[in-house]
Write a structure and sequence with these properties.
It is a single chain. By secondary structure, the chain is mostly helical. Among the domains are: about 150 residues; about 160 residues. About 55% of the residues lie in helices and about 0% in strands. The protein contains 22 helices and no strands. α2 runs antiparallel to α3, α3 packs across α4 and α17 runs antiparallel to α18. The radius of gyration is 34 Å and the shape is elongated. The termini are far apart. The relative contact order is 0.04.
């Protein structure tokens, strides 16, 4: 059954003539195949176009194959059941019709295999057309199953085809994020979503075990891109969109039950997170964890192992991991006594110099918002923040000082840190132990806020003014620090330069270095040239 394409057509002309030629050939052969079984061999010519090096020819052949095999499935012209080997067709007493069904079923399998290969084609339009054609096949197979049905679990959903498609979408070598975004349209269908989740779980286990759990950045990024697009309906009544309609036992089908969706979602994420991930991926996951992952899980507390491991990485990842633990503690009754100890140990002068500084203070404000925290714990945080303030830049101090005052407002028992008489009269040894990791053992309540008093003589007038606030009784209303979280050195300097001055210096020394570089903060406003 060799290809029977006319030699003149195969050569064709260049330019428009060649374009018209392949379209004419494909359309003609598509019609011949569907109109008369005698022309079944023409399918070889259409399939050959699927292997072309020309993008338009592949897309044309993909659309033709989609039309051919969807119609053959509707007609019932593909063999159903365990497919016999093609070489056995010449033997036995099979009827001509059965031989035709077996032959076309083999060609259908060839077509699916070629389209799966084209998922990795360089041209995105080829990828997209192959993806859409395969999903049309899935819908047609759902209506007209090619295998004997397993009513006990999968009904007539083409699970094997979806599993094969995911095997190519989740490539180990190529970034497939754009095509996965296109696939998101199909994930809105409830049955597709359910079987994708269970298939992804199996795919992750197979690929990661084959690579002995080693980090595979491209593959794991593809998996994350797919997982992060999956959203579970909030109510069973919302589950009405299915690729495959089940005529019987619909209420018993796992793909139609919200409880099974949540379980599949949970298992999918847990399997993905149990393997070592690329460092940058922890942050991506933790950012969406509390809004997109935890609410859709059957038992969110199962994430504690991942969050604990993420905390040990350090830096911004540790802070985001604590945010996840905080959600579990407050919304899911997780008992995690070391939470505030871990937060306390994240307090380091380096947090003032990293890009996630604003997020740190925002989350720390949430974590320390409860008025039911013990006095020794709040005092430990107040004291540690105060000690860190001695080496903090002005932009951080303008956030930190109001933040400390807010903590004292929430917990009046900590006011003695401000008004301790012995500390104000003469120098003395500070009982607070900065190096102590346990806030319960650092003796913060026995200390005082002499650091804040020191900052009242800070070189920056705004900082000195903010530090002077503790000299007067603190009002009950807390300071709003949200506008200060993103304050940069450049903005702070601009604010100073625009401020009105009552006195103007009449003598000054010419600057030699501060204004030298036009890219520096002051160099933007002044120039020596």
């Amino acid at each position: 059954m060799a290809p029977s394409r006319d030699s003149n057509v195969m050569r064709g002309d260049t330019g428009e003539n060649n374009q018209v030629s392949y379209k004419k050939v494909i359309n003609t052969q598509t019609d011949r195949i569907l109109q008369n079984r005698k022309h079944a061999n023409d399918i070889f010519d259409v399939l050959e176009y699927l292997q072309s090096e020309k993008e338009k020819e592949i897309i044309g052949a993909t659309n033709a194959c989609s039309k051919i095999f969807c119609e053959l499935l509707d007609r019932g012209d593909l063999y159903v059941g365990q497919l016999p080997k093609e070489e056995d067709l010449m033997h036995g007493d099979r009827s001509a019709e059965e031989k035709y069904h077996i032959f076309m079923r083999h060609r259908y399998n060839n077509c699916v295999g070629l389209m799966l290969e084209n998922i990795s084609n360089e041209a995105f339009q080829v990828k997209e057309s192959s993806l859409c054609a395969l999903m049309k096949f899935a819908a047609s197979e759902g209506k007209h199953p090619l295998q004997n049905l397993d009513w006990s679990e999968h009904y007539n959903f083409p699970r094997e085809l979806i599993l094969a498609l995911l095997g190519h979408l989740l490539s180990e070598k190529e970034d497939m994020s754009l095509l996965i975004s296109r696939f998101q349209e199909f994930l809105e269908m409830d049955d597709v979503r359910y079987y994708v989740m269970s298939s992804v779980r199996d795919n992750i286990t197979r690929v990661m075990d084959r690579n002995k759990g080693a980090v595979i950045p491209v593959y794991q990024n593809n998996v994350f891109t797919l997982l992060s697009t999956i959203n579970i309906p909030s109510q069973s009544s919302e589950m009405t969109n299915f690729l495959v309609k089940q005529e019987t036992k619909h209420e018993d089908w796992k793909a139609a039950r919200l409880k099974d969706h949540k379980h599949a979602f949970e298992q999918m994420w847990l399997v993905f997170l149990k393997y070592k991930l690329p460092g940058s991926m922890y942050k991506k996951i933790l950012v969406i964890l509390h809004e997109s992952i935890l609410p859709q899980m059957s038992d969110p507390t199962l994430m504690i192992d991942f969050l604990t491991a993420a905390y040990d990485i350090g830096g911004a990842i540790s802070l985001l991991a604590l945010n996840g633990l905080f959600v579990l503690i407050h919304e899911h009754n997780l008992d995690y006594p070391d939470f505030y100890k871990k937060l306390y140990n994240l307090l380091d002068p380096s947090i003032f110099h990293v890009k996630y500084k604003a997020r740190f203070f925002h989350l720390a404000n949430i974590f320390l918002s409860s008025i039911h925290l013990p006095a020794y714990l709040v005092a430990a945080f107040v004291k540690r923040f105060s000690r860190m303030a001695l080496t903090a830049p002005p932009t951080a101090l303008l956030v930190l000082l109001p933040f400390i005052c807010n903590l004292i407002r929430r917990h009046p028992s900590c006011r003695l840190l401000i008004h301790r008489p012995s500390a104000a009269e003469e120098p003395c040894d500070d009982p607070y132990i900065m190096e102590e990791e346990d806030p319960a053992q650092c003796h913060a309540l026995e200390s005082s806020l002499w650091e804040i008093q020191t900052l009242q003589k800070h070189y920056h007038p705004d900082v000195a003014k903010a530090a002077m606030v503790i000299n007067e009784p603190l009002p009950e209303a807390e300071d709003d620090i949200s506008d200060l979280l993103e304050l940069s050195t450049f903005e702070l300097m601009e604010r100073e330069l625009k401020a009105e001055r009552k006195t103007i210096p009449l003598e000054f020394d010419t600057a030699t270095e501060l204004l030298k570089n036009s890219k520096e903060v002051l160099g933007v406003h002044f120039s020596l040239e």
